[in-house]
Amino acid sequence: GDSVTQMEGPVTLSEEAFLTINCTYTATGYPSLFWYVQYPGEGLQLLLKATKADDKGSNKGFEATYRKETTSFHLEKGSVQVSDSAVYFCALSDISTASKLTFGTGTRLQVTL
Amino acid sequence: DAGITQSPRHKVTETGTPVTLRCHQTENHRYMYWYRQDPGHGLRLIHYSYGVKDTDKGEVSDGYSVSRSKTEDFLLTLESATSSQTSVYFCAISDYEGQGEPQHFGDGTRLSIL
Q1: Average pLDDT, rounded, for chain A
Q2: With an 8 Å Cβ cutoff, are A99 and B98 in contact?
Q3: Which has fewest Cβ within 10 Å: A19, A104, B8, B91?
Q4: In whole angstroms, what is the distance from residue A43 CA to residue A82 CA?
Q5: pLDDT per position as a tens digit, B25-79
Q6: Within an 8 Å CB–CB cutoff, is residue B57 touching chain A?
Q7: How far is CA B56 from CA A84, B31, B53, B64, B106, in A?
Q8: Nearest Cα residue in chain A from B59
Q9: Does the beta carbon of B103 lie under 8 angstroms from any beta carbon of chain A?
Q10: Interface size between A and B, measured as CB pairs under 8 A
Q11: Are A79 and A30 in contact (CB under 8 A)?
């Protein structure tokens, strides 16, 4: 079945540092890929998405490129802020399975001054 | 933000009691989902609905039932709660089943079963 693997956290960075959170996936079809963010005490918010190979999703300075050859969708940001501290989830959905989301385990990011 | 309201937001109950969580949406979206979030597991799908009275099981459906009698409401019931069902429960909605259609999440219900 489909699965998503994310790098273990927590990730601790100083403000203005470069961020990479790795995500790889296994899917039988042609999935869409998502990054969601969860701030403390809140639900998940869609951060960005990509629906086909070589698509780049971007939002709020975050980017991720759908790499079919490496089955990856790594999240990057050039300069993190304290306000980016949150848990980040990589997920996929496949229309062949009614677009149900399969999530990674989440990566906690803490940004310090 | 998508109009999704989960109730209650917090609940503490005892093993063996029935529990019902409610998800209410104002977006008229067709699809509704219930997930549970546990450390080390991310979010896992419990049940989902693709229309009024149309539901199906997800990855971790044992011990849970759902009902959807109106487009806007999706209920999750634990018939006899167990401590293993202590978790944070999230409802999500989406408009259609197309490629890349994202799901929008409620703020969650924290359920503790003692």
Answers
A1: 93
A2: yes
A3: B8
A4: 19
A5: 999 999 999 999 998 888 999 999 999 999 999 999 999 999 999 999 999 999 9
A6: no
A7: 36, 11, 10, 11, 20
A8: A102
A9: yes
A10: 63
A11: no
